[in-house]
Write a structure and sequence with these properties.
The strands form five sheets. Strands 4-5-6-11-12-13-15-16 form an eight-stranded parallel barrel, surrounded by five helices. A three-stranded antiparallel beta sheet has the order 1-2-3. A three-stranded antiparallel beta sheet has the order 8-9-10. It has two domains: 279 residues, Queuine tRNA-ribosyltransferase-like (TIM Barrel), CATH 3.20.20.105; 94 residues, no CATH class. With 419 residues, the chain is of the alpha/beta class. The longest helix is centred in the middle third of the chain and has 29 residues. Helix content is 39%, strand content 19%.
């Protein structure tokens, strides 16, 4: 029930072939036209946005977080409801991550301003310290010991446990358990974490296959249907070190995964080559997912170098603070200058927010902390990034990718980037 087929390969004016492609990925809950942006609903809900709104904005795929859903409501509750699709009322393709990112966000990054993306001259520091003393996650060879963000109770995720939780949640595609590292980690630690991720990948794959074999023929008590198969994606690590990325992609590419994620830490300057290095080693006829990436230029760089799917919380997170995407760059609609601006966020935008409301109204809602303000800004941002990736796909089909890339990036970023 899973099939990935390439419809058009990316070529430049000289006929040189790149790793980019427009494709279709068939899943038990529908076909994804890739490249595609995956909408993130951490706790099985996009903050302030209904699934009906998601469909209206063109969302194809929905991703939820294993760590958070394990804490509340618990995978057994979701399973009893008929799985994530029934529980959330989303009938399209769904994904869950493994909890591996929380090894970073609740571990090395906890209580700091460190992001998985760094620059060489800002926040990128080679440090021997890979665990902070007040962290809520501790990595061991067997798995990761978390502390619940709700009550501080201990939770231990092994690769097997993560697979069991994700099988119970019932998403179409899910990820092997991995260790997402900090960009501040030393090369020695990046290698250590990568090799551990490879061992966890093997354990994840073995458990996934065991669970898939076990559930054959099982009838879902809610839907009365046979439970459909689920696909497992391995996660490439190696940080900003190209030789590690190459090794990780080759190692995981030789395993029998259904698809692959590119995870872990990057420097902004090295992201393009890190992606290309990994994708060149991965099986061509399997989908590739860029974990946690949502900046417009990164879509172009990722797609050009072989990525098919992207997910990120950035569109809704920035919306809650009043920041919105426009073709001319980001704009903070909370700023005082928009209090009497009775035009939409973007004149030619067809999202629900722009076709029905003005900057003045959204500015008022956000400044007064009305929930609707964050919802409207989120709807606009999600529509913007979803449509952008869809437009990139169409530009590949129309053989106009490089022209579209230059036009968009020049208008959005000005002279920040050169071609």
């Amino acid at each position: 029930m899973f099939n990935f087929s390439i419809k058009k390969r990316l070529e430049n004016k000289d006929g040189n072939e790149f790793l980019g492609r427009a494709a279709e990925y068939e899943t038990p809950h529908g076909t994804i036209k890739t490249p595609a942006f995956v909408t993130v609903g951490t706790k099985a809900a996009v903050k302030g946005v209904t699934v009906e709104m998601m469909k209206d904005m063109g969302a194809q795929v929905f991703l939820a977080n294993t760590y958070h859903l394990h804490i509340a409501p618990g995978e057994e509750v979701v399973k009893a409801a008929g799985g994530l699709h029934k529980f959330s009322n989303w009938d399209g393709p769904m994904m869950t991550d493994s909890g591996g990112f929380q090894a970073f966000s609740l571990g090395a990054a906890f209580g700091t301003n460190v992001s998985k993306i760094a620059t060489k001259d800002s926040g990128y520091v080679q440090e021997k310290k890979n665990q902070v003393t007040n962290s809520m996650a501790k990595v061991t060879e067997d798995g990761v010991e978390f502390r619940s963000y709700k009550d501080g109770s201990k939770i231990f995720f092994t690769p097997e446990k993560s697979m069991q939780i994700q099988q119970a949640l019932g998403a179409d595609m899910y990820f092997a358990f991995d260790e997402c590292t900090s960009p501040q980690a030393t090369e020695a630690y990046q290698r250590e974490a990568m090799e551990r991720t490879h061992r966890w990948a093997k354990r994840s794959l073995d458990e996934h296959k065991r669970l898939e074999k076990k559930k054959v023929g099982l009838i879902n008590k809610i839907t009365k249907n046979v439970r459909p198969p689920q696909a497992l994606f391995g996660v490439v690590q190696g940080g900003q070190h190209l030789h590690l990325r190459k090794e990780s992609a080759a190692t995981l590419g030789a395993m029998d995964f259904d698809g692959y994620g590119i995870g872990g830490a990057f420097t902004k300057e090295d992201m393009k080559t890190a992606i290309a290095t990994a994708c060149a080693e991965l099986p061509e006829l399997k989908p590739r997912h860029m974990l946690g990436i949502g900046e417009p230029i990164d879509f172009f760089l990722g797609i050009e170098n072989g990525m098919d799917l992207f997910d990120c919380v950035a569109p809704t997170r920035m919306a809650r603070h009043g920041s919105v995407h426009t073709k001319s760059g980001k704009m903070n609609v909370k700023n005082a200058q928009y209090r009497t601006d009775f035009t939409p966020i973007e004149d030619d935008c067809l999202c629900y927010a722009c076709t029905n409301y003005t900057k003045a109204y959204i500015c008022h809602l956000l400044r007064e902390k009305e929930m609707l303000g964050a919802t409207l800004a989120s709807v606009h941002n999600l529509y913007f990034v979803t449509k952008l990736v869809d437009d990139i796909r169409q530009s590949i089909l129309d053989e106009k990718f490089f022209e579209f890339k230059e036009e968009f990036i020049t208008k959005y970023y000005g002279d920040k980037y050169s071609f």
